[in-house]
Amino acid sequence: MSENKSPQARPAQLDDRSPWVLDTRELGRHAGLSKAVHRTVPVETALGVPDVITIDAGSNLELDLTLESVVEGVYVSGTASAVATGHCSRCLDPITEDVEVDLTELFAYPGSATEETTDEDEIPRLVDDRIDLEPTVRDAVVLALPLAPLCTEDCQGLCIECGVKWADLPPGHGHEKIDPRWAALVDRFGDETGDDQADGPGKQA
């Protein structure tokens, strides 16, 4: 919360052609009025962490929202959903994941108490009765993406010795390690054992 705020520059006008911009004039600043909005928005820049999990550029975000006029502004609530792609953090297999996030945001009216006592990076503003959803939706979606995505909750990952998925390896798979100080003895006795087996039980003294 800010006090003794200095006058702020008027925000730039929003572009009505942008799919992120919503016109709220139907609500007429009458508290209690609401309207539903469904919109499909193309993703122009990938959202997420590259090479981990992203909502790719060229895909779509589905917005199902309710806009409600309240005393201090327009309250937006609803969901944003999309399909994310990436790689399992344990086995590195490609994954596809449905993502749905809840959205709740107040857009303050110019001249309202909220507008006068908060910074714009705390609470967004209406500009000429329009709101820009993009920063709010992008932030919510990126925060909802997992930092360590998994193909399944019980994924065992890869064998650290050979790099093969544990799910594809036979039971009892392992890599025996021999102390290099004993390696010569192992080789020697291994060879002698092999010779004895080759001679067979019928060998004469």
Distance between the termini: 98 Å
* Low-confidence regions: 1-10, 200-205
The rounded Rg comes to 31 Å
> How many DSSP helices?
3
Secondary structural class: alpha+beta
Major sheet summary line? 6 strands, antiparallel
SSE order: EEEEEEEHEHH
Based on DSSP secondary structure assignment, what is the total number of beta strands? 8
Shape: elongated
Beta-strand residue percentage: 25-35%
Binned, the helix content reads 10-25%
Average pLDDT works out at 82
Describe this structure in words.
- By secondary structure, the chain is an alpha+beta fold.
- The protein is 16% helix and 30% strand.
- The protein has three helices and eight strands.
- The protein has helices at 113-117, 134-144, 183-199, and strands at 21-23, 34-42, 47-49, 53-55, 60-70, 73-87, 94-108, 130-132.
- It is elongated and about 90 Å long.
- The model is unreliable at 1-10 and 200-205 (pLDDT under 50).
- InterPro entries: YceD.
- This is Metal-binding protein.
Topology:
Elements: E1 21-23, E2 34-42, E3 47-49, E4 53-55, E5 60-70, E6 73-87, E7 94-108, H1 113-117, E8 130-132, H2 134-144, H3 183-199
Antiparallel strand pairs: 1-8, 2-5, 3-4, 4-6, 5-6, 6-7
Compact description:
By secondary structure, the chain is an alpha+beta fold.
Offer a few descriptive terms.
205 residues; alpha+beta; 6-stranded antiparallel sheet; two-stranded antiparallel ribbon; 3 helices; 30% strand; disordered N terminus
